Please model this.
Amino acid sequence: MTNDENQINVLCQRLGQAHHDKDVDAIVGCYAPDAVIYSLAPPLRDAIDRDGIAAWLETWDGPIRIDAQDVELVVGGDIACTTALNRMRGTKTNGTKEDIWFRTTMCFQKIDGAWRIAHDHSSVPFYMDGSLKAAVDLKPEPLMASGANADNRVGAESP
Model:
């Protein structure tokens, strides 16, 4: 693993820990100030919104666990990108237990010698049966079609 790959992995682990701890400043600190965000929640395009993140974190009772699987990272100069399947688990303040898988693509930029997230795109597929229902019930297959091993994980914990 190169030094840049290690630094990006540390950044991703820091982001996961910040969600676990519900630390809004640590979450925001992982992103470039002008980052473009395509999150699971509306609107279609967003920027880093500290108040919005803080409000979302308040809807969770206790830690939020986000584990990444099937991580693919490519680094070239001061730009990098990664794709992953993420599992987010936790309990909402209304008592609902959440456990969903979603897809993430992140682009990183080295700014003043430090890697930051410049673009974060998270999504779930939707059923194309006319219902347009989000397919939040999907689970990853043990092996990806490309042959990537499901054990390629960052910050992964046991179920």
